[in-house]
User: Fold these one by one.
Assistant:
Number 1:
Amino acid sequence: MSTMDTLMNNEDLVSPGLSACQGCPAELSLRTAFKVLGPKTVLGVPPGCIAGVGVPGWGLKTGMKTPVVMPLLGNSASLMAGVKQAYAKIDPEVHCVVFAGDGATVDSGLQTLSAAAERGENIIYFCYDNEGYMNTGFQKSGTTPHGAHMSTSPFGPYSRGNVGFKKDVPLMLATQDAAYVATLCPSHVQDFVNKVQRATEVKDGLCYLHIMSPCPTGWGVKPDQSIQYARAAVESLYFPLFEYDHGTFTISRPSLRAGKKPRPVSEFIAGQRRFRHLTEEEIQQLQDDVTRKWNLLNKLAS
Ligand code: SF4
């Protein structure tokens, strides 16, 4: 089935009335992923934006059309691994999936995610990365980029924004025996669908899919610009698309194309309120970090 057939013909398993902010691509990613995963899926959704917008459901006619479990912020991977083990005896074709934000993944939930990868639990773990704790007041997370103005790392007389650099959890999981790792972006739908499809085929370990998810509210951009920023993240190599499949790294076609003549990172950050205080020197630091990681990825894929 082609990508368009998958998207046109498969049922939308998310009810129409979620309360996400206008232009939120996390909701779009959830809908797209579930069109590929299909109805034989159990969703674990920890506290975060996607739980908060009503995915667990209010009453019987809202939220997901599949079963939903709501873990704590830090135990999504271990809880869904247990659900998967129970389903393995009932119906091994049921996908047990986590859809968690970066806070619940790269900070609070990293220990249980790492342990599930080590044990080879056959769950599919999505992280929608909006680069902060966005539904609780825009606090910094482990994937917040360097220099970003957040409520807990504000720009002001004594601070230039976030001190650290973005934590690279996809590479961490790839070097830690996850069976399949991929980076996805809602601006590149065909690549997105292919990677979710591949995750459904893997039966011998953990699949980790990391989604770039611009947050219009937290990043200070217009709702109709979220896909534009998602595309700029890929085309500047700020967020390169790649796969790690059972030991082999492959750079995905959109990033291979972008790598020939990448857009400067300054184009990705332009217009974002969280970066508007950055100096030329600070922007160059971000650019250097992006270039360093891209070079590393090329070495791993060569
Ligand atoms: S705060 Fe950001 S990530 Fe959360 S629902 Fe709103 S736009 Fe989406």
Number 2:
Amino acid sequence: MPEISWELFHHQVAACALCPLHQGVRNKVPGQGDVGAPLMLIGEGPGQVEDEEGLAFVGPAGQLLTRMLAAISLPRDRVYICNIVKCRPPNNRVPTEEEAAACRIHLRMQTALIRPQVIVLLGSTAAKNILGPEIRITRDRGRWFERKGVLFLPTYHPSALLRDPARKREAWEDMQRLRDKLTELNLYPDIYGGTP
Ligand code: SF4
């Protein structure tokens, strides 16, 4: 395996034709943020605005996500944000299992480069792809899962919160759990001050 690097990652995503989703996209959306962040957030796939701008979570759902992070005093530029697939599925449909599996090579490389200690899984697609098909987002959101020393927290995708604002209360509880865990692990001592 070649030595991994951000240069190689971005080159591989730009050149990728491993699944049909690359056809017709305006821009691929590899993900962006603090490449040294202890916290990574993974969503489903780019939407229309993301496709136009080549950036993850910049449309209405992304703006809500920014506000959710701000509500726990976390500036957006202190985390890394990406998606399961790097190309926009037509009409914002859910990526197929084959598309998600094809794109995993890129997600694995960026996760290996960032080496986050905590990963938030935004929505059912991200949660099922990372934790397993048995995951049910309505049942398992807000629970901590551990895989190979990394902590995972599934929660609702911000798009789901825009469609169904009644879920915002549960999402807020999840964000508080996230803040408590980041504090306990002393991952953002300049923001949360660490454990007493
Ligand atoms: S979605 Fe991922 S695997 Fe499919 S073409 Fe785009 S970058 Fe490649």
Number 3:
Amino acid sequence: MSRKITILTGSPHLNGTSSKLADAFVNGTSDKNNVYRFDAGLNASQINFLKLDENEATIHDDDLISQEVMPHIIDSDVLVLCTSLYYYGINAELKAIIDRFYEYNHELKGGKDVYILITGYDAGDQNSSAYRPLVEYFEQLCKYMRWNIKGTVIGSDSWNAKKLRKYIFETADLSKNIS
Ligand SMILES: Cc1cc2nc3c(=O)[nH]c(=O)nc-3n(C[C@H](O)[C@H](O)[C@H](O)COP(=O)(O)O)c2cc1C
């Protein structure tokens, strides 16, 4: 039985470098019918930030996240989190979705495989000061959510077309192994 995959991207850049990694992930999968992709950065006007009352309880928001995106995430076996490096953090639009997990923590926790796709101008590796905080952020997030990180692509020096092609192959290889 094939696994349900949800891909979340955060960049507002149409056909940008991180978007290309998300494309590669989709292209690598054997069963594209089981893939749901939401490009938060390109649909930012349709999604809202988390809202809380004075007791820190969620004020439910009936936007695209609650109607469509969150049900897909909850239902998926595999979650792909794709971001570019913006001011040494993740894309705000992706973070907006992650903060909205708060209303659905119980339904979301446990049992998902996660793939992390990152692109950034900085040429450092995953242990460099540019990317290490991001890698650790995703590690902590997944530990808290009881999700397993199965693969990470650090698309550093992203303006280098040759390197970007290598990351695209790396990403497609990751998704080929999902069964
Ligand atoms: C608003 C903004 C902030 C950025 N901040 C960083 C940064 O902190 N470090 C870095 O190495 N590159 C930074 N970059 C460069 C991007 O990470 C790089 O161009 C990346 O390939 C963008 O991916 P995208 O086109 O998918 O958004 C920034 C670019 C933008 C537009």
Number 4:
Amino acid sequence: MAAIAAAREGAQVTLLEKNEKLGKKIYITGKGRCNVTNACSQEAFRSKVVKNPRFLYSALDAFSPQDMMDLLESLHCPVKVERGERVFPVSEKASDVTRALEKELHRLRVGIRLNAEVEKILVRDGAAVGVLLTGGETVPADRVIVATGGQSYPTTGSTGDGFRWLKEAGHTVFPPLPSLIPLTSDEPWVKRLQGLSLKNVTLTLKSGKKTLYSYLGEMLFTHFGVTGPLVLSASAYLTELAPEECSLTLDLKPGLTPDQLNQRLLRDLDASGKKQLRTLLMGLFPASLAEEMPGICGIPASTLCCDVTREMRQKLVDMTKALPIPVTGTRPLSEAVVTRGGVSVKEIDPRSMESKLVSGLYVSGELLDVDAMTGGFNLQIAFSTGMLAGRSAAL
Ligand SMILES: Cc1cc2nc3c(=O)[nH]c(=O)nc-3n(C[C@H](O)[C@H](O)[C@H](O)COP(=O)(O)OP(=O)(O)OC[C@H]3O[C@@H](n4cnc5c(N)ncnc54)[C@H](O)[C@@H]3O)c2cc1C
């Protein structure tokens, strides 16, 4: 996007990509469908940006989600808006987004060099003057835009090279951490539930008494812990906290108040006499969870409905409304959807994306210490900051 913007302003642009093709990460976005942006207002957009939302005012003004949708339409890649204002190509093929942008690069005669790995940025007298490729070749330039991404899914090419260069150039780079990442748990019952997918549950993340995240949606138990949309989103708030500082709880029946749930259990228990408790619970939960619930509540597995005490019933209600999921941490950064941390936004001019420390050096995308929730926000941040960097660099 930065190359397109600079070339549209009339600059002579060379795009250096270390992979054998462009936009490898785009291919895996949105499970191959590419959730390319989010058609919400700027205010709503910024509310989904977890780190440094105010830095994005100018970038989103310069190139909004609507501008992105218009651009794709104009490049013959029609888009559609789905639930939660998430925007996808009508074809549901991420490759169509890459192809559309690539076509525009060719039309604008951007020099595309594939398999061209940048080793370092060349800086002279406080100004960027080009880059050095790993083969030893120097590529001189009046301006350099760095758009090397974060450090997650490194097989797509984002191996954190830009963090190193920017640090060498004197920038503050906050340590890269995983965000939008599955969470790990050592709890045996969590592991035994692997494969169980829950819909219409509410996941709540708290730090002390403060609620950091609480949403209704879907989640999944796996062999290592928990994942799915709710978990990934909650993780965005957990990254900078130690697991022991947080509590993650699940409301398995958000449609029922504790009292309504208690009444229902009372009725069902009364009507079930010598049935096993876990059999009765199958009417309330998926089978594997019904098997686990008595154990989780400290109730012997073979307990009959007629033997369920008031305390046991209360425990069942409490655990159904706020089941604690003990979390040990996150999966590694390489598996994160986005990288938290990166180049300090205090050292980048938000109106141009130019470094305040090195003139002629521009920074865009996930390299910046900005990250957002799922929903098309992270790609739009890359597109908006890239567009602004490209335009500014061409001036
Ligand atoms: C599985 C997954 C699914 C995702 N789904 C979505 C989604 O649906 N919607 C959404 O908004 N976001 C999604 N994201 C996040 C989104 O893809 C990223 O935030 C976005 O791609 C960041 O863009 P970027 O241009 O900053 O970096 P990247 O897309 O990572 O691009 C960086 C490029 O720089 C190149 N490069 C790196 N180092 C060098 C070097 N030394 N020399 C030359 N080239 C180099 C890389 O090869 C790469 O092509 C997803 C991420 C993942 C991992």
